[in-house]
Amino acid sequence: MTTFKSDLLQLLHERGHVHQLTDSSGLDALAARQTVTAYVGFDPTAASLHIGNLASIMLLRRVQQAGHRPIVVMGGGTAKIGDPSGKDETRQMMTDERLASNIASIKGSFERMLQFGDGPKDALLVNNDDWLSKLGYIEMLRDVGPHFTVNRMLTFDSVKLRLDREQPLTFLEFNYMILQAYDFLKLARDYDCTLQLGGSDQWGNIVNGIELGRRIDGRELYGVTAPLITRADGSKMGKSVTGAVWLNEDALPAYDFWQYWRNTDDRDVGRFLRLFTDLDRVEIARLESLEGSEINHAKAVLADEVTKLVRGSEAAASARATAEQTFAGGGLGDDLPVLAIPAEGMRVGAALTALGFTASNGEAKRKIAEGAVKLDDQPVSDAGFMIAPPAQGQDIRISIGKKRHAILRPA
């Protein structure tokens, strides 16, 4: 088993957060002798982060748990450019107002999971628009441009894969890696930040920042990337059958968030407990050793713990109570999604699509034909069935499969 001198690298390694390190011995020695300041960048391209971002937030949480200082960098500046990594198309341009609104909306996710304040190890949140938007174009070309060669930039996956697929890459996006590298230099100068963390797709961008700091200031900087989080079936973490699993409550009800984790594949339980919870190793080992139907207890614990971190204890308790009431008692939990049925009624397929249970009325028809749709536990066989609004206080439960439920109420 790999061992490190520093609590930071040992914790990251034990919990499964490490994919690549730029200089493991140098970073290990630094973290063992002094407080390290580390950052992760998040481009605010939506009003909520999703669980694909959760692994990166957990990196910062681990940094703080190991006694070091995390910095959350909101990419208000880089989001105006768009990271080409893993993208086939140019991102839609966003206004300053939209970016500011998104940043305000997602701050809560960090405030729940990190300790902010004025102490030497308290988290800090900064916006790279504060410095990137002030850079003069000639100044940037003169001071930073000479340290990047087009030859090398073309070899990075974020650029190479786009070109290999014969997808256009704008000059605007081509500059993204330069701006992100400058972020690292700026943070090193202003906050003595020596470590950048990120997903495996950020390796090239991180290395660029390390090299820029060395060439311009002679700084010794470090990088750690986390593995791409996939589920046991090979699918990418962060998506469900009905879309993104958002962190914000107003984007996804707590019950749906909790249920996503409760539906984890048996093979993923131990790994996800290490990555996304603070449970100790002994308890995780016990939970992942459960077999048969007992593994469902471990999945419920996983759902509880992640929901507590992201949404708070009350949301976790309410979601679990709803699940128990829905599945064990056949009742209607308070956290289930609610759809208002107008006075003229609504076709069952339209209700499924309105709830997000199906992507289209065509998909709804297929699910009905498969016998997967029920109203108050009674199968629906007619795709044109009209749901009349229930009487006040007499809710209807609509279900698709065994795990997706909602409440229908009069408008």
TrEMBL record:
| Short motif 'KMSKS' region, span | 236-240
* Molecular function terms, GO-annotated: ATP binding; protein homodimerization activity; RNA binding; tyrosine-tRNA ligase activity
Tell me where it mainly resides: cytoplasm
Which InterPro entries would you find in this protein's record?
Answer: aa-tRNA-synth_I_CS, aa-tRNA-synth_Ic, Rossmann-like_a/b/a_fold, S4_RNA-bd_sf, Tyr-tRNA-ligase, Tyr-tRNA-ligase_bac-type, Tyr-tRNA-ligase_bac_1
The UniProt record gives the binding positions of L-tyrosine as Y39, Y176, Q180
Chain positions recorded as ATP binding sites? K239
Please give the function described in this protein's UniProt entry.
Catalyzes the attachment of tyrosine to tRNA(Tyr) in a two-step reaction: tyrosine is first activated by ATP to form Tyr-AMP and then transferred to the acceptor end of tRNA(Tyr).
Supply the EC number(s).
6.1.1.1
Question: How does this polypeptide assemble, per the annotation?
Answer: Homodimer.
Among its keywords, does the record have Chaperone? no
GO annotations of cellular component type? cytosol
Q: What class of enzyme is it?
A: ligase
Q: Which reaction does it catalyse?
A: tRNA(Tyr) + L-tyrosine + ATP = L-tyrosyl-tRNA(Tyr) + AMP + diphosphate + H(+)
What the record says about family reads: Belongs to the class-I aminoacyl-tRNA synthetase family. TyrS type 1 subfamily.
Q: State the span of motif ('HIGH' region).
A: 44-53
**Gene Ontology terms: biological process:** tyrosyl-tRNA aminoacylation
An example Pfam family from this entry, by short name, is tRNA-synt_1b
Key word Ligase present in the record?
yes
Which keywords does UniProt give here? Answer: Aminoacyl-tRNA synthetase, ATP-binding, Cytoplasm, Ligase, Nucleotide-binding, Protein biosynthesis, RNA-binding
In terms of domain of life, where is this protein from? Bacteria
Q: Could you tell me what this protein is called? A: Tyrosine--tRNA ligase
* Compartments where located: Cytoplasm
